[in-house]
Amino acid sequence: xxxxxxxxxxxxxxxxxxxxxxxMDAVVFAVGNAKxxxxxxxxxxxxxxxxxxxxxxxxxxxASYVLESGSARFVFxxxxxxxxxxxxxLAEHVARHGDxxxxxxxxxxxxxxxxxxxxxxxxxxxxxxYEMKDEHGTVVLAAIATYGETRHxxxxxxxxxxxxxxxxxxxxxxxxxxxxxxxxxxxxxxGNVELGRMDEWVSFYHKVMGFTNMKEFVGxxxxxxxxxxxxxxxxxxxxxxxxxxxxxxxxxxxxxxDEYLEFYNGPGxxxxxxxxNDIVDTVRRMRAAGVEFLDTPDAYYDTLGEWVGETxxxxxxxxxxxxxxxRDEDGYLLQIFTKPVQDRPTVFFELIERHGSxxxxxxxxxxxxxxxxxxxxxxxxx
Length: 382
Known about the structure:
alpha+beta
């Protein structure tokens, strides 16, 4: 495996950024039952319900629940009765893909300028810029297409102080959120694309959004005896928004990317990584709430201390909770991955606690993929 890292200076607020972004605005899920999804993410992920849109306040076609944890915002939408092209699209999306991510929404300072730049540089427009208003102010929205049926809604909300968007009303929490939140931000969102398409989508982010390569992973260190993949990470200049993009690589058996593409019926968002300040406490509480995590063999921990060095969490605690650790030239990170959070082996989550390292757990790839392969074998999909 080769890994190349492009170090660029922090360019927060740089004037020459052709496509400035403020960060992730929301991860929007199309699901079969948004009410139950909102309950699951409230109880199992400790998120707080903050806003709602549904038939009670004028949305005749869809019900949407907005949940937050720190700056991380998830929106779960399901169709009540499809009567427009958008409703039919959402219903068909769930039928085709199962519960999944339909939108990686980006907050931008100027949605009109961002949309114009993107389309001028090759993006396919899904929604021309338009305004939404209510008593809380005005939001400007636009949307462009990315891989599969995923979209990027461009959200300009500097003139708005409502709970989410016009059309949404404040909502009471489903359950009382924990005193200490389980995670506070979205670290990165990973997309899976078809064999041979990774470089095409990396180029898309370069051209359309001015993103740059952050890291790339190819070759033996991102493979096991049976399966392999390739991955490149694109990010905006501030490194607030990071999008790893995976494609399968030719191997003896079906890779995790192949399995995802088969069961999701095409490209889409594979997993969402969430920043936590205390991965030990978060994993304990999420396990207690019923979240299942990938298992890691004891043998991984027998030599972990020799190469990862000292970390905030003792190796024996990492072993107990099956948390992975990795170190690079900038520091170390702790990470763990859930099993898929729906019946299809598609979308899952990562928890990550960073201490200097801006990497993605390169040293854990083999252990992680072997853990995923064990689950694939149990499902009969390896």
